[in-house]
Amino acid sequence: MARAPRLAAGRARALGLPTRGTTNPNRLRRVDRWVEHAYGSLVQQSDDPFVVDLGYGSSPVTTVEMASRLRHLNPKLRVLGLELDAERVAAGEAVADPPWLEFRRGGFELAGRRPLVLRAFNVLRQYTEEQAAEAWATMVGRLAPGGVLVEGTCDEIGRRCSWVALTAEGPQTFTLSCLPKDIETPGDLAERLPKALIHRNVPGERVHALLTELDACWATAATFAPFGPRARWVEAVRLLTARWPVLDDRKRWRLGEVTVPWESVRP
């Protein structure tokens, strides 16, 4: 894996390659909403709820939004945005008004910090599958005890997303999330699979089987189309539960989500 130049003495070496940097307001609202649902209690109950947003891009807006969305869970919350590019760090520092929000230079080594929650979105697409696995191991190894890494990818405006949640025990869950009216079929989400799965969307692989089955359920749910794309998505996921170990419930499905255990899609 390529490594950035060594930082100043006493600081961790920044590991990784600069991202393309594309970002937009609300791009990561779907994953933030899921993190609050799935790991909100982790943040609430922590005496040191430290959260890191890795690779926020050309604008710090998604880090600022993440901080505002999670802050209500615990008044002790601290959020750190990390980027390899010094100009991007400077842009973040320019808006980091609250003392609990900061920006620094860093990569997969997380600038030597140990977060309880780590969000790393759209940072691994340029790596090989093997390098992405190494990055997973590096980041998970830097988590605080009981911490979680949420790694994934999404389109430019956050309407098509997928992510994996990982702990020290390994990958735990896989989530697809979309704005149902933005897709023709759930298979459209294949282009936004995380690096660990995007090359596995071929016959014989579990993630391909999941998307194929979800497409079939979507087709069967066509009778719900008059009630809108959201109703059709909910019915498609309900049908999927008969064949796949779908987690969560209708409340989450209505948000355009479907989450399954990682083992059900593991390469």
How would the blueprint of this fold be written?
Blueprint: H1 29-44, E1 50-54, H2 61-70, E2 78-83, H3 86-93, E3 101-105, E4 117-121, H4 129-141, E5 148-154, E6 160-167, E7 170-178, H5 195-198, H6 206-220, H7 229-240, H8 250-253, E8 257-261
Parallel strand pairs: 1-2, 1-4, 2-3, 4-5
Antiparallel strand pairs: 5-6, 6-7, 7-8
Helix pairs in contact: 1-2, 6-7
Oligomer: single chain
Give the fraction of residues assigned to helices: 25-40%
Strand order of the largest sheet: 3-2-1-4-5-6-7-8
Give the name of the CATH superfamily of the largest domain.
Answer: Vaccinia Virus protein VP39
Provide the CATH top-level class of the largest domain: Alpha Beta
CATH topology of the largest domain: Rossmann fold
How many separate structural domains? 2
Distance between the termini: 22 Å
DSSP summary, beta strand count: 8
Biggest β-sheet description: 8 strands, mixed
Principal-axis shape equals: globular
Q: Enumerate how many helices there are, as a single number.
A: 8
Structural features:
disordered N terminus; eight-stranded mixed β-sheet; 2 domains; 267 residues; 19% strand; 8 helices; alpha/beta; 8 strands; Rossmann fold
Any overview of this molecule?
This protein has 2 domains: 1-158, Rossmann fold (3-Layer(aba) Sandwich), CATH 3.40.50; 177-267, no CATH class. The chain has 8 helices and 8 strands. It has helices at residues 29-44, 61-70, 86-93, 129-141, 195-198, 206-220, 229-240, 250-253, and strands at residues 50-54, 78-83, 101-105, 117-121, 148-154, 160-167, 170-178, 257-261. Strands 3-2-1-4-5-6-7-8 form an 8-stranded mixed beta sheet, sandwiched between helices. Strand 1 (50-54), helix 2 (61-70) and strand 2 (78-83) form a beta-alpha-beta unit. Helix 1 (29-44) packs across helix 2 (61-70) and helix 6 packs across helix 7. Mean pLDDT is 92; it is low at 1-12.
